[in-house]
Amino acid sequence: MKTRSDKMIKVPQELTNNWARKVSLKLDGLSVIEFSCQTEGRKGSYFLKEHLLLIVRSGVCTLRFEDRTYTVRSNELMFIHKSIAIEFEKMGAPNYNYAIDYMMVFLNDKIVEELFKFAGIKPIHPVDDVIPVTVFPINECIRSYIETLKPFIEKPDEVNEGLVRVKLMELLFHVADSNERFLYQLMQPINKDRSSIAKVMEENITNPVSLNDLAFLTGRSLATFKRDFQAIYHTSPLKWIRNRRLDKAKELLAETDLTVTDVCFSSGFENIAHFSKVFKEKFGFPPSEFRQKQKLQGKA
Hints:
Largest sheet: 6 strands, antiparallel
Helix content: 40-55%
CATH topology of the largest domain: Jelly Rolls
Shape: globular
Number of strands: 11
CATH architecture of the largest domain: Sandwich
CATH class of the largest domain: Mainly Beta
Strand content: 15-25%
Oligomer: single chain
Distance between the termini: 30 Å
Order of helices and strands: EEEEEEEEEEHEHHHHHHHHHH
Number of helices: 11
């Protein structure tokens, strides 16, 4: 269960003020965030708004997606497909005073399209076995490349944006050259089953997803997703999600001791004032008063 302290966050957007962030480099379509810290274990939950390349130079990162667990260790690289929710745990290397050093490279659709156009890569025919997470070793080319990237991310304001873009495009070529599945993963939605609306909606009730995310996860355009959803549920996706989240919040208020703030985040809302307002609109009382009435009824 997600509470305020470990609520799922959207990345890369909400990593801007992360305590462990060392440096960052942002371009239109791509961002790089480097982390260097000491920890014996830190957990959290992410919803990936963009594709992620996770490069671990020292330490261990463990990620869980659905019922699978993936581990990336020192001198390994992990590719994670966009529009999925993951749980992660990172731990520093015991032999190096629990130091962990890794880099997160986020890629949106614009930079992916630019890569394919620049490389002259033709669209790949859809396949049915696209795996959203892949771990592979960092080869010598990638290892050498990372060292040449350091001056760019340590002083991002002092380098030419065009040069940075070419330099980061080089990374994508190195990764594609070292793992042929990389291009397939970039180009394919995770779930192309057009009957998957119900499954996708249930899995993402409390995740910070947009309508575009949900449409992507079901393999539909936004317009088609809205039309198909209306035909199934006879309401809009936003109203359906809000009502399910409110029902979840009502259940948590009645059956747990979580604070109202924790209930807000655990049920998928991101703003406490908005949560209190819509909760009162549906159930007639604000969350705190609703809880008090539940306690009184229990004692009666």
